[in-house]
Design a protein that fits this description.
about 70% helix; MFS; MFS_dom; transmembrane transporter activity; mainly alpha; 20 helices; transport
């Protein structure tokens, strides 16, 4: 296939002709994504990320806000409250590896699409729950469903952006996460004080906390609708040897970002980065005709289920060998420690703030000290009274003070500010140092909660703790996405999140037990695990890949 010369003396090449120009040379995935530009398609991705992040965070956080409101309706003990906070994480743990395998073999988009629609159904089921068992069951199933899209979301977003924008996208998702935590108390503030008790279908009792859960189903439903028109990750398609499909996706991104015709996309061919046995029989490079925009056929793989499983295991084999094994184990331990400390305090803060507001209202004008130990004792006694004297204790609807909502809004707002500051801090001191400092500081703040002497000090210390711990989590996750290969990235993120959820379950089940033992043990537990993450970096520095 040679070059032709037109009447003006210019050299033109037919489709498929070899050309030494950089634009016609086969490109890798990063170069191809950069060539698609940054514009409307990326803005749509970020808008989708807002709803998707809301769906992820709502599924694991909503229980902490309804516990003070629903304890009379559901006859909740302290242990029941811990189980409700933890049950979604139990579902996430069970589904972590299957979701990761599906994302790395069947595609990011499919996991996101079906995962969010199934999550919406589970949230609606929890909103219709009439007792503790029913609510626990649907929350467990919701955790089972949301874990896949929650882990794959980070991978999908980063793979849709070039190297220049990936760190910015991760930081944006972190800020969206923090903003989502700000949205929940605002939503609770708007719904809980309303007198919306009624019967649905003549038999299902609906209260304000169930309306709150209905509202929390919207983000997952909207996310599923958006994904109906979103493409698969081109980086995933390239890693599977489906280069022709990847080029079509890249052309679509290019058209949406620049407004130019698809056939003007400068990349005409892609390097087959990870060829399979089937793909090696064909050409190593797939091309698209720039004039007709038709694709060369890709031979479908006819694998049996056993062959697919064997191929998946071979794909995961590098995870169990150096250097990835040492780095992965360290990340798993750090994630377990961070989530045990962060999600224990974060999910029990609404209950603590509600107890503080009730205590201050009951003893208004009296010379009493609202120390942390006093508040915990008061919460234990009130919960016991609700169970032993239910008719009198629950005779009137639960009225939650505005202080509870305002305090939770302040904590979430501080987390959002922390993410803004983290971006500039990373450029100054590097990701690894930021992670190290944040883990140590959060451990100190965790034990400082024990010495809180009033509600203001509790608010300030808890706000600082949640902010610093959230920045630690974002820093660690950015390292995972940046330093594991594409074909392993989703499953590593899934296992990392699984370890974090195991920490969340451990913390939320142990916290009410330690509260009943004494005031000090729960805060010693939180401080110890956060500082253990700091030691994991300090004494095993050689296991970390250099982040910065």
């Amino acid at each position: 296939l040679g070059n032709e010369t037109d009447t003006d003396g210019n050299s033109n090449s037919r489709p498929g002709a070899s050309d030494d120009s950089p634009q016609d040379a086969p490109a890798d995935s990063d170069k191809a994504i950069v060539a698609s530009g940054f514009g409307r398609f990326n803005i749509i991705l970020l808008i989708f990320a807002i709803f998707a992040t809301c769906a992820n965070m709502f599924e694991s956080t909503t229980m902490s806000y309804i516990l003070p409101i629903a304890e009379c309706d559901l006859h909740l003990t302290l242990t029941d409250k811990g189980v409700l906070n933890a049950c979604a994480y139990a579902g996430m743990i069970i589904s972590a590896i299957p979701w990761g395998y599906l994302a790395d073999t069947k595609g990011r988009r499919n996991v996101l699409l079906y995962g969010y629609f199934c999550t919406c159904i589970c949230v609606l089921g929890s909103a219709l729950s009439q007792n503790f068992i029913m609510l626990v069951t649907f929350k467990f199933l919701g955790g089972l469903m949301v874990n896949g899209p929650a882990a794959v979301l980070f991978t999908y977003l980063t793979e849709m952006h070039g190297p220049k924008y990936r760190s910015h996208v991760l930081m944006a998702v972190g800020m969206i996460t923090s903003a989502t935590l700000l949205l929940l108390p605002v939503l609770a503030w708007a719904i809980f004080p309303r007198d919306w008790d009624f019967l649905l279908f003549g038999s299902l009792a609906i209260h304000s906390w169930q309306i709150f859960l209905f509202a929390c189903a919207l983000p997952s439903f909207i996310s599923g609708l958006v994904l109906l028109v979103m493409p698969e990750s081109p980086k995933f398609l390239i890693s599977q040897g489906r280069n022709a499909e990847a080029l079509q996706v890249l052309q679509k991104m290019y058209y949406m970002n620049t407004g130019k015709p698809k056939n003007t996309y400068p990349i005409k061919s892609l390097i087959l980065e990870v060829p399979s046995r089937d793909a090696q029989k064909d050409e190593a490079i797939y091309t698209i005709d720039s004039k007709s925009e038709t694709t060369e056929p890709v031979k479908p793989s006819s694998r049996t289920l056993l062959e697919s499983l064997r191929a998946g295991m071979l794909q995961m084999k590098p995870m169990f060998h150096k250097p990835l094994l040492g780095l992965a184990l360290q990340i798993y331990i750090m994630q377990y420690s961070m989530f045990l400390g962060l999600n224990t305090i974060r999910l029990w803060l609404p209950q603590l703030f509600s107890s503080m507001a009730d205590y201050e209202a009951e003893f208004d004008g009296q010379d009493v000290s609202a120390t942390m130990c006093t508040i915990l004792d008061y919460s234990i006694n009130k919960t016991a009274e609700t169970l032993t004297n239910h008719e009198n204790a629950c005779a009137e609807p639960k009225v939650v003070s505005m202080d509870m909502y305002i305090n939770n809004i302040i904590v979430s707002a501080c987390g959002l500010v922390g993410y803004f500051l983290a971006g500039s801090t990373i450029r100054l001191i590097g990701t690894k140092r930021l992670l190290t400092y944040c883990l140590f500081i959060s451990g100190i703040l965790g034990i400082c909660l024990y010495w809180s002497v009033n509600s203001l000090m509790t608010l300030l210390v808890s706000s600082a703790f949640v902010t610093v711990a959230c920045v630690s989590f974002s820093s660690l996750l950015s390292a995972v996405v940046a330093h594991f290969p594409t074909q392993l990235r989703s499953i590593v993120v899934s296992i990392t999140m699984m370890c974090g959820r195991l920490g969340s379950i451990s913390g939320n089940l142990l916290f009410p037990i330690f509260i009943q033992i004494g005031c000090l043990p729960p805060f010693v537990m939180v401080a110890a695990v956060m500082i253990s993450g700091f030691h994991c970096i300090a004494f095993r520095d050689y296991c970390l890949i250099k982040y910065s």
